[in-house]
Structure formats: C-alpha cells, structure tokens
Amino acid sequence: MPLDRRTFLGSSVATGxxxxxxxxxxxxxxxxxxxxxxxxxxxxxGHGHSDKRYAFTVMGTTDLHGNVFNWDYATDAEFDxxxxxxxxxxxxxxxxxxxRAEKGRPNTLLIDAGDTIQGTQLAYYYAKVDPIxxxxxxxxxxxxxxxxxxxxxxxxxxxxxxxxxxxxxKFEENCDFPLLGANxxxxxxxxxxxxxxxxxxxxxxxxxxxxxxxxxxTNPGIAIWDKANVQGKMAFPGLEExxxxxxxxxxxxxxxxxxxxxxxxxxxxxxxGDQLPYVENAAALVAxxxxxxxxxxxxxxxxxxxxxRVKNERTGREVVLSEPLKWGQRLTxxxxxxxxxxxxxxxxxxxxxxLNSNAAAxxxxxxxxxxxxxxxxxxxxxxxxxxxxxxxxxxxxxxxDTPVLDFIxxxxxxxxxxxxxxxxxxxxxxxxxxxxxxRTAEVPEGEVTIRSxxxxxxxxxxxxxxxxxxxxxxxxxxxxxxxxxQTPAGGEVDPSKxxxxxxxxxxxxxAVSGVSYEIDVAxxxxxxxxxxxxxxxxxxxxxRFVLAVNNYRASGxxxxxxxxxxxxxxxxxxxxxxxxxxxxxxxxSIDASRFASVDWKLTRDGVPVF
Length: 610
Fold this sequence. Notes:
The protein is of the alpha/beta class and 610 residues long. Strand 6, helix 5 (165-174) and strand 7 (179-180) form a beta-alpha-beta unit.
C-alpha cells in the first residue's frame, strides 16, 4: 500500500517535528532531505546567549510483540499477570496522549526499539492466515495502530525477520514511519538494507530548530536465529562497530542530540556463545565505547530498566539508558534539556523514567480502529480442532517428565519419521527435544482449540532434523542439565529452588524423548547424566541418532553443543505449532496413552528426587 505522505508530513509539520533526513539505504517514508545531503542550517540566535534553553521528551516502547489490545488470545480473556500489568498499544496511546498534552506535542517524539510483528495470534494471523503479502492484503494491525498513534521511527527487532523478508518489507511499506537498522546490511554489498537513521527537527521558541538524530540498531543474532530467512541475503554486524560508523555521520549532518534505539539488552551477554563474534546484549557497550550518544532506548531483553547511566570511556560523559517492559506494559520517557552555547544547542541534562500502562484506559481511537481485526482473530483461535482424553499440564514440566512435553516431542518425532521414510536416514532412531515455554500452559480435557495449542507452543519455531552421535547426544543432555541447582542428597527438595541455575530460562532447558536417562542433581554440572539408554541398552557413543529439534536450537540458540554444526537431513518452513494443530485435526484425539512415558528423572546419588 503506498504511503500517504500528506498524513505523515502534515502531522509532523503541524507538531514541529518534521523529518529532516533519513539515512542511506532503503527509502524511508517521508524524507524531506535526500540521504547524504547536508541538513539545513536553520536560523539560530546570536552566539553566547546561554540563557536560551529548550526541553523536549522522547517517548519509547519496545518488544510490543503484536499486542494492540489488553487481551490474552491463549486464555480468551483480558490480559492479567501476578503484578497486574496491562499490555497493548491501545493503552500506550493513552499515555502518549497524556505526555503530549503535558509537554506540548511539538516538544515530543515517539520511537520503538523493535520486535513488533511477532508474538500474538493477532500478529500470526496477519502473517500467515490472512497475510499482508497477499493480493490486496490487509494493512498490518501493528502498522495501523502505530501510524494512528504517530510513531516517528522504530528499530528493527530480531523477530521482525521470523516470517521472512517479504513480510517485513510489506510491513515496512505499511508504516508511515521509517524502520531503522544501521547494522542490517545487504549480504553482498554490505550497504544498509534499511535506513540507518532519521533526523527529526523540533522547533524552539528561540528561532533555531533542534535536530534530533535517531539511530536504529538491531541484533546480530538474527544471522543465527533466522538463518533460513536471511542467509545470503542480509548480514548483521556488531552494534558497537556500526554505531561508531554512523554516530559521527549523524553529528556531521547537524544532529544536536543523538538517541539510539537498540534492539539489544544492556547486560553484555550472549546466548549464542561462539556462533558469532558479536555480543547479543550490547547496548551498554555501545554507550561505553561510542562517543556522541546522549541516550539509548534498550530492547530485546524483556526487562525493565527505568534509568541506567553508563560513562563513555572516551569522553567521560554519561549516557542514559532505559528499557520499558515488554508488550506495551511500560512507556519510557527521556527528558532532554538543552542550552544554547557557542552558536549551537548543547545537551545540558538527560533523565529517564517509565510510566505503567495499567494506569491508563485503552484509547478508543486505537481499539476502535482494530476491533474488526481483533474479532477475526478471536474467532480463528477458538476453532475446535479435536478432543483430549485428559488434562495435560506444564506446571511440573521443568523438573518432571510430563505428558505435555512428551506430546510435543511425539508429534515432532512422528513428523520427522514420515519425512525421512524410505531415505538413507530412515533406519536411524529419532529422538526429540522439547522445552517448557510456559508453566501455565495446558491441554484441557475435552474440546481442544487452536488457541490451546498456540498457548502450548507460543513461539513461531520451525522443525529440523539433525544427526548426532551417542557421545554428542550425551554432551547435549549434560549441557541442558546445567539448568538445575546442585542439590545435596538427603532432605526435602523445594521445586521452586531447583531450576534456573545460572539464570538459565525454562525455554533453554531441553528434555529429550526417545532415549531414557537420569539427571543426578547432587553432582556438579557436566557430570550429571547417567543410565543413558536406548530400548533398555546403553547408548553406544558412536551410534547415530536423528534429533528432531526446533530451528532456534538448531541455529545455535542457547549455545547447545554440536547441534548447530550437525548435519541437517530435513527441515520445514511450517511452524511446529501448526504441525501440532494439523496432527490434532487429523487424529481427532489427544490420548496420552499413545505418547506419555517417563524417559528421564532427577536423582540424587541415584535416588529419585520425586
């Protein structure tokens, strides 16, 4: 759909925040100065008028993950959690309106730090069921909402690539604001594949506009996590090196203030180990190493950071970081104060805070705009596709071999066996990994709907088959077993204190079906796997197995050993969630007697924990 430049530029000019410049790369919406051209100088007051001051506010969201409404499509009810957070752009819109009313809209900007078009059934529906890429396809609901709210720019997140580049490009076309990614480059030319930056002008009472440069950075892990979608097409160099390249260019283009929207956490850690030479959560490193940045809107880590100050090692100046909580639960506010010095605007102070969206009502303008789309998705996810003979709960799945994870592993293994039938790998035993994505997920007794399967497998992972040896399989299980806190024998075991050792998330613990084994949590990590057997016989270290594994893990997510470099013998672009849904449709019944078995258990010195 062609962009309506009148809507974008008209509102921007009216608010005094017109786009002055977009960075080189794919054309961005509404650039009034071509990329690479010098920005207009403006009309500034005379030198030395240090009494002239101006303040403005940059609002920020991140990791919206397809949330427009305060709604949980898995439970078919209003969203709620233990902290009584609310979610969605309709609530964010109300907060944005309040800030604009308080500060004056001309003195505000609104940006996002990525992960927008994946995460809810609303997002999935418009990528796969009624895709925006179809002939005469709909405008993406997230684009509709963000356009109506009036976003000025958004960085690319890694999940933007989950549905392939064509869906992302169509979403970009749907947006009335630029999608920024300075370190998302063409694989051959290494030129930016998206605009690296945009410069926004804010009018001041003193005659000289303030020019705010917004640089977008995304996550280099995309090269691993969405390898099937981006390999040979795009590359994702490190955040620090690309920021060091583009921040000086922003300053040279006349930016008085530089804000970075970085889809990268602040911790300096990575989940993909040595798979790439770049750090996954590099926002604080960018602040520390690259001079010329005033503030960073942080994304990706799904944590709340109201304000975090990092001293730049070259200039000694503090850079202010803030990460609002995911799904539209929080809105970051960067309050920037400037003073006129030596013929230009200089940043005098920056502070950050977050607003909680649970204190806001949904903006009827946004919810009304998308009520029809929401209703379509609700009807879709409530389709009955089969029945279950019993309730299967994931509550104990992180520490017990439960039927609900067996079910996921069983479906994956069946799909792989059928795919390999008649080929050279058909005689190899198939083992299958599964992780607990949510301890509240369950398969209900009785009618089973699409939404109950979506809740069981909420991620858009696809399925692969990789070949491992018996020795490599044992290494894989040992690595997974790091998840448990070392617990001496004797005495009661508190399940709430048994898992998440080394801050390993539930989704980075794999249970494997198709072999049997014990995990001795009294032993140190790396020496826990015992009695690893296939059909009652010890596993031969030289034996070969086919591992049914999700693409996140197969691509190096979680940094499990061997699997990323193992031979791939089959893969599908269909999501595992869809494979499960189709299996239920064809079978008509989920009967645990077909797949439930206790293949693994926790022990202490050989004595079962449970």
